[in-house]
Amino acid sequence: MSRVIGIDLGTTYSCVAYLEGGQPVVIPNLEGLPTTPSVVSFTSAGERLVGTLALRQAITNPRNTIFAVKRLVGQKFASPEVQKARGKLPYGLVEAPNGDVLVSFDSKSLTPQEISSMILGYLKTCAESFFNDKVSDCVITVPAHFNDHQRQATKDAAQICGLNVQRVINEPTAAGLAYGLNTGSNGVAAVFDLGGGTFDITLLEIQDGVFNVLSTNGDSYLGGEDFDNRIVDWLVDDFHRETGLDLGTDKLALQRIKEASEKAKRELSFTTETEINLPFISSDKSDSKHIRKTLTRGTLESLTADLVDKTVPRIEQALADAQLTPPAIDRIILVGGQTRMPMVKKKVSDFFGRPPEEQINPDEIVAMGAAVQSGILHGDVRELVLLLDVTSHSLGIETENDGYEVVIERNATIPTRKTKAFTTVENNQRRVKIHVLQGESPLASLNVSLAVFELVGIEPAPAGVPQIDVTFEINADGLVQVSAADVETGSQHKIEIRPSSGLMASEVKEIMRSLGEGHGGSGEDG
Ligand code: AMP
């Protein structure tokens, strides 16, 4: 039987692992490294580079080097998040005909799913080279608070590169699985996951091999990139003050500043001050201009304290949903590279009144957990008997006057299903429209629109007589499915679906055809 790989598709770095003798093991990439930059670059020679090679292009080829695409997956172009990202990204973003966001470069535009599929294709190639065998199945992780669109888009990305997704699993849950398998200890764990682009907090109870997620919360627009951008803004403002020159519109300079800022941020997790040195960053009529600044840990902390504070209400909500208080938490597991920042560690320790677990590699534990999950699916992990995860968002339908009726509450254990009876409001009405939404706002318009489902072919009858049972289901991947049955006849009712976002199955097939399946190649192909 061919191997199943576990993939952590991160905003900035990705990692792939597999299960060997019941234990998760990280698979090195083609350069021999455990993690791979989630970057794709298109060169002027028509080559496509993925990972480290692509990252090296970022400064010289900023407009055609795509990074942080995870922040765009499953998003609408008009969303405030995308509009905010637009100002910061050196590559272009445009609107797709269905309102989704597209990445544009070199007079081409691609969906975020296609870019993600190139990163996944590269990881697949790394695994195939490691095993010297074909790999076609995977378990893939997503942030716990990813909505249906973002989950489906991630699954589509895997399918485009020829990977069959056996399960989509939440990143903090995966981390909890890998940790629990390793230590075998019982108790309630808080998984605090601050990666490159997203933040998740998940509370889970581990009891004799049963992993029970109690609650989850998060922010899909809070991560290491925001910390980097604070340093970038600080440098750009300072440069403007000193020279009168605005670097904000110079994409090449911005990319250099961004890279130096991220590097300085990392260093400041281990030292208390560092120098940012960027010679010849710009010039005016008189001479060349350089950036040479000392950044202290204290300044970095004051630039980013509010970002760290933004995690607190999310933790409080997760605790309230699980009906727990901080002393009830036995262990704190830190996941995601940004948790290496001392201020983040301190915030979490102070909040819970205990230090986080040591000896966890925050860059690798999620992929390892995905590999563990593949072992659970195939009966290869005897220590773990059951994983009970939850849905991170409430699922409901639009009612009159922009109202919202919740059908499945957030933090319900998945898979879950609820049936609701629908009828007609007019005589001889042949169709009933159901607008399915995800979110917590009482106003329909402030939640995420998943799809419009239309029950069609209803037999003519007086208003209120037909009864159609509609079943809303959230499967183990956290994906939403809707089906309908006629109560009178018991027969399945026909539903027409208009998804509000994402690719149709036929579009995924079309992309696969045009790209040729399994296009990972050697990380360089054209
Ligand atoms: P991940 O999504 O887990 O790969 O997280 C990557 C994020 O962690 C990026 O924003 C990195 O800049 C950040 N990161 C990695 N190492 C460190 C470090 N030593 N200190 C602070 N942030 C870091």
Please tag this protein with its features.
30% helix, binds adenosine monophosphate, 526 residues, 12 helices, 6-stranded mixed sheet, disordered C terminus, alpha+beta, globular
Q: Which structural class do you get from the secondary structure elements?
A: alpha+beta
**Distance N terminus to C terminus?**
32 Å
Number of helical segments with 4 or more residues: 12
Q: State the total count of DSSP E strands.
A: 29
Give the CA-based shape: globular
Major β-sheet annotation: 6 strands, mixed
Computed over alpha carbons, the radius of gyration is 24 Å
Beta-strand proportion: 25-35%
**Low-confidence segments, ≥5 residues, pLDDT <50?**
517-526
Reconstruct the topology from this structure.
Layout lengths: L3 E5 L4 E8 L2 E4 L8 E3 L1 E4 L5 E3 L1 H6 L7 E3 L12 H9 L3 E4 L5 E5 L2 E3 L1 H20 L5 E6 L5 H13 L3 E7 H13 L3 E8 L4 E9 L2 E10 L4 H20 L7 H17 L5 E11 L4 E9 H13 L1 H11 L9 E5 L6 H11 L12 H13 L8 E5 L4 E5 L3 E6 L4 E2 L1 E7 L9 E7 L9 E8 L12 E7 L5 E7 L8 E5 L5 H11 L8 E2 L1
Parallel strand pairs: 1-11, 11-12, 13-18, 15-19
Antiparallel strand pairs: 1-2, 2-3, 2-4, 5-6, 5-7, 6-29, 8-9, 9-10, 13-14, 14-15, 16-17, 19-22, 20-21, 20-24, 23-26, 24-25, 25-28, 26-27
The structure holds adenosine monophosphate.
Overview of the molecule:
The chain is of the alpha+beta class and 526 residues long. Helices cover 30% and strands 32% of the residues. The chain has 12 helices and 29 strands. Strands 1, 2, 3, 4, 11 and 12 form a 6-stranded mixed sheet that branches. A 6-stranded mixed sheet has the order 18-13-14-15-19-22, sandwiched between helices. A hairpin with a 2-residue loop joins strand 2 and strand 3 (23-26). Helix 6 (224-243) crosses helix 8 (297-309). It binds adenosine monophosphate. Adenosine monophosphate (AMP) is lined by residues 10-13, 195-196, 224-225, 262, 265-266, 269, 336-338, 340-341, 363.
